[in-house]
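Sequence and structure are no longer studied apart. To make this concrete, we show below a single chain and its fold as tokens.
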Amino acid sequence: MTKMEKIFEQSKTIAVVGLSSNPARPSYMVARYLQSQGYKIIPVNPNEKEILGEKSYPDLVSIPDKIDIVDIFRRSEEVPPVVEQAIKIKAKVVWMQEGIVNEESAKKASDAGLTVIMDKCMYKEHSKYRPNY
């Protein structure tokens, strides 16, 4: 089983940092797809109350649920505080979406025991690796 397959099979809850309520935004499209595949999506956006029928939280540390994957839709320079919080809440995976690269934060997350995926689209990867149910 590849690293990607393992991530998708062992994860249930995905916090989407920077999730937009605008259906035209990539974050919305990716989160809606993941939700349709059976994952629990938790929006992290301080400017929203609810997205995709789920309560939105201002940051990761405010979420009461256990988070498997922190999916980041923020500019590369805005990644460090998100990774700090991901480590604090003991997430298993930090996923930086396509175009998002922060080597320093990736190393920090990796050193803390988190799996790091960087510069990859979760939708594209999942549609490639999804298990056949």
About this structure: Residues 3-129 form a domain with the Rossmann fold fold (CATH 3.40.50.720).
